[in-house]
Amino acid sequence: MPDLPELAASFTAALQDAGIAVGPDRTRSFARAVTVLAPSTTRELRHCALATLVSEREQIEPFDAVFRQVFGARADSPVQRGQPGDPTRDLLNTVPGRVPGTRPGTADRHREAGPQSGKAPVPLAASPLDRLAGRDFAELSPEELTRLSQAMHTLVLRTPTRPSRRHRTAQRGARIDVRRTLSASRRTGGYPLRLRRFVPRTRPRDLVVLCDISGSMEPYARAMLQLLYCASRASRAEVFTFATRLTRLTPVLRRSGPDDALAQAGRAAPDWSGGTRIADCLAEFNERFGRRGMAHGAVIAIISDGWDTGAPADLATHMARLSRVAYRVVWVNPRTASPRYRPLVGGMAAALPYCDAVVSAHSLAALDDFTAALSAPRRRR
């Protein structure tokens, strides 16, 4: 039986597969709610999940289907609630994070000895995922990065919507659907008593991620590759890496699983941990891909610390060209997490005027700012 972090990760992953957007922040909120409230019935556990994981009324029906599939939950009758036969009581054993059938730990002994000793129950410590959420990616060991990979796989990168060429019927629209109006008028003797209208459909904007894999970004390379794998799973997402050359990783990441994709991505980028030529790589992207329409109206995310061996003026020129065709440019710099950071590096100073947002994304908790920056509307520069 999995512990609470694994249980929350598998449950939210199943919700994600069912079409319910659940990010790392909501996964942590669900695990924290179970830890604090210690639900003893299926009904209480469902209420914890509803309050932390569901944001729209339309999501309740698919949520209940996933809940029954994951927990085997049935509507618990009054005689069963809290009894030993309750599946949720057996699953959590009334202590969040405790695996049934194991010996009670220190926190369990304090909870059981609470009424006799007269002391207040000692709350459980935070889950391993919560303890790692605020730590810098560069400080994590390979084992800890592997532990975070489950939460990274539930990450959803959303972009703003754009009007599509297709239309859909609506009660109130700016344009009249003449074909449907005339078709409906045949039922009323040829008189169009009711005007049919339509509005354009919307679809998410394209997402393009360019990740710096040079030597200065090596401490964050493993975590950033996990982030790139999540980006490749988003609809219409393109992934590139760059150091001394530009490498397109989208086909590699899409046709492989997470572990194989990361290994193949490392082999596909021969300039791993090399020098940095951001201006040249941006120029190549603009010429080979941007002019073909990949960057037009798209959200561009550049992951780099700004260290560049080229001239800052060249980087400013290519950033200006990119910003004119892109809908939004988000620069991800893990170094900005330090309060002493100043954009004094030539490359970062040259690119800053053409960025709509600059975020750190140096930890799992900081990825919330990154996802918010991607989905934010465009601002006037």
UniProtKB/TrEMBL annotation:
Highest taxon in the source lineage: Bacteria
SUPFAM superfamilies found in the cross-reference section: vWA-like
Name of this protein: VWA domain-containing protein
SMART domains: VWA
Native species: Streptomyces actuosus
Chain intervals for the UniProt region annotation (Disordered): 77-123
Domain VWFA: 204-370
InterPro entries membership: UCP010256, Uncharacterised_CoxE, VWF_A, vWFA_dom_sf
Pfam families attached to this UniProt entry: VWA_CoxE
